[in-house]
Amino acid sequence: MTAASPGAPSAGPSDDPLAGVRTWWLRSVFVSVLGSAMVGLANAYIIYDQTHSVGLTGLLAVCASLPPLLLPAVATALAQRFGGPRTYIARFLLSAIIAFVPVVLLATGLLTTVTLLIWWAAMSVIGGLFSPSRTLVQRMLAPPELLPELSAAVSRNSSLASVIGILGGGVIFASLGPIWIYAFNALSFLPLILPVMRLVGIPDSAKVTQRRFRDAVGLIYGPNARHDLRAACRYASLNLAIGGYMVTFPAIARSVSTHVGILSLLQATAAVGGIATAAAMSRLRGRTRWGRVQRGCFLTAGLGMLVLAWSTQPGNARSVTLIVGILAILPIGFARSLERAMLSALVQMRTPPQSRAEFFTYYALIPMVAIPFGQMVIGTLADHTSVSVALAAVAAMTLILVALGPRLRLRAAFDELTLEDVRPTV
Fold it and tell me: What percent of the chain has pLDDT over 90?
């Protein structure tokens, strides 16, 4: 029997043929997120350092999101033609190649805000072409009863890797320069390919059914709409849009110190809460309704945002801004991470097998809209008023939504969600 890694869900029964692959894949996800976290820090620091604009820093999210929005039909067709594992391998092999571009730009002195944004958009084109591949592969890696546990383990591993990557990236950036960060990121995509090669040839639902991307809309709107999936998608949109508050981190860090280590500390704090996601999911499962958990997450995020807004007021001492800000970001990060892991597991479990390719493509597009929208709105408001005012506005909106919750049909629909697998319809 294969020994499970600390972040892996239990292997299940001894006849589980993918237990070892699952553990191997979780470790490769850790390495990949490590590189991505370093690059996220480097990208934000370089652009804010060159432009001194919160709004322009938000263009990173726009460049990462716009190309995939234009490619959902192509992504669905590719997933149905070649299946989840093959498109997954193609995605990360191409990503590893294109990820070396910043290394060349830095070596030749050509890395500017413009060239960095162009490269970032090119990376997102690759992600957009194969957007459902990761969810399809994750759905294949575990039996239905282990999917919630696997989703939580992915969230925990990703959060731990993000913390280490962001803090380590700050040290590497300051001591060795960003070129080594981008080089490691390019190499970090390769481990993702190896475990998934074991899945090639295994039948998956994406290739069994031939449906179009627009069919996914029928699960959200129309006479046969699934109210539970609609609720999950809308709450995911709100979660990710509120997460746009992180676009203010470079400005908050600059108000404390010009050292890149302050920015890495803030970003790591936002990620560290996710480490406890797996334990929280395991403890809460079966003890309370997921709708109640979601509302608690939203309330926690709103209150934390209010404290963060106060800490960033211009009159506060630098130590107050840093210490109180960190204490506010911790619960926000945990609440958002728990909600995302919960929503991811629920969508994977509740989507009908014959609709997974197109609906997972649809679900993968939600961050492409919500994240840049949140970052651009919050960033623009921060540029024209102040970071404190922008964060206070986000906190007010979040708390208002919590107060209005009982009047929204969305709340009742979300309470209907369960972690039970949906069987194919005949």
Answer: 30
